[in-house]
Design goal:
Elements lengths: L1 H27 L3 H13 L11 H30 L2 H16 L5 E4 L3 H12 L4 E5 L2 H10 L3 E3 L5 H6 L7 E4 L4 H14 L4 E5 L4 H9 L3 E3 L1 H14 L1 H12 L6 E6 L11 H4 L1 H5 L2 E6 L5 E3 L12 E6 L1 H12 L3
Parallel strand pairs: 1-2, 1-4, 2-3, 4-5, 5-6
Antiparallel strand pairs: 7-10, 8-9, 8-10
């Protein structure tokens, strides 16, 4: 990055100034301010008259300083010119702004890895306006994330300081999509140590890694190969059903979503039957299933089904409809 080059060459120039000033003090036996003056007019080649007559050693020393400083100043000016001409100021400003946004994140999601799987997760989160930050160590991939205008951190997700920078302590969930099972296991272990309550989903490749990831602290594990195989079979057996499901999830051609809505303790829905709540008629969405706290799932629940605290309703509807039911599930008004 050019700003690092600028700081490096400025440091070198300061080093030359100090070296030349000390040299003039020793060679010409003059005061510090006079030596500094001699250094500046020599390095800048402005042509002012010397404070004292130079002896042979002083002249050789001055020639040496001029040769070094002219080249250094020229290169520094080139780096500064590149900094402005390549738009690095804008990049630095954007990066600083992004870092401040990341610093303020809470109740968000962390995505480790932006490969093929990670990019699909990112696109789904973007489409649903879900707050998230991506951790990626490949600078070429980072360029793609910049174009996608997503929050990112350049670094290794295996390192605690990088996870901490992603505000893992305040995060709601973490998804690790790395191609290495060993790296995924390590990330899960580290994440679980840093945040005991965070929800973790990990990708795995080798079947033997499934148990290791769950033992390390992952809440759910996913095999892209397994999911791909199931989808291919479903496309062959029931292509129209799969088309419908894909469009609910992807929502490119249809304006409906499938979401999970949790019934809050203070919600007006608690203790009411679906008939009394009259959700379908009032809001217009469909309740496909209810998942109880004991993991029991009730598909196509009947009208007399009573809603309880922490029930998870699987609903299908538009974004506005889902926002409505989410508000009712949280609020007791």
């Amino acid at each position: 990055m050019n700003i690092k080059k600028i700081m490096t060459w400025i440091s070198i120039m300061l080093g030359i100034v100090i070296f030349a000033t000390v040299g003039y003090i020793l060679i010409l036996d003059i005061s510090f301010i006079d030596a500094l003056y001699m250094t500046i007019i020599t390095m800048s080649t402005v042509g002012y008259k010397e404070i004292v007559d130079l002896n042979t050693i002083g002249k050789v020393f001055t020639i040496f300083i001029i040769l070094i400083s002219v080249g250094m100043v020229g290169f520094l000016l080139k780096v500064i010119f590149d900094f402005f001409s390549q738009g690095d100021i804008k990049s630095v400003w954007r990066k600083n702004k992004m870092d401040k946004i990341i610093e303020a994140l809470e109740n968000h999601y962390i995505i480790c890895g932006a490969g093929d799987t990670g990019i699909n997760v990112i696109n789904q989160f973007k489409r649903r306006d879900i707050p998230f930050v991506v951790i990626e160590k490949d600078e070429e991939v980072i360029k793609e994330l910049v174009e996608l205008e997503v929050l990112y951190i350049l670094g290794d997700a295996n390192k605690e300081e990088i996870l901490s920078k992603a505000k893992i302590e305040k995060g709601k969930g973490l998804i690790t999509t790395l191609s290495s099972d060993a790296e995924n296991v390590f990330i899960v272990l580290t994440t679980r140590e840093m945040n005991r309550d965070i929800h973790i989903i990990s990708r795995f490749h080798d079947r033997s890694a499934r148990k290791k990831l769950l033992h390390a602290g992952a809440n759910r594990v996913v095999s892209p190969d397994e999911i791909g195989g199931k989808k291919m079979a479903q496309l062959m057996i029931s292509p129209h059903v799969q088309f419908f499901v894909d469009n609910i999830i992807d929502a490119k051609n249809m304006s409906i979503n499938m979401e999970e809505v949790i019934v809050n303790k203070g919600s007006q829905l608690v203790g009411k039957s679906l008939r009394e709540a009259d959700i379908s008629n009032k809001i217009g969405l469909i309740i496909l299933a209810i998942r109880r706290e004991d993991e029991k799932i009730i598909f196509n629940p009947k009208a007399n089904e009573i809603l309880s605290v922490d029930d998870r309703m699987i609903v299908v509807g538009s974004k506005d409809q889902i926002e409505q039911i989410s508000g009712i599930a949280l609020d007791n008004q």
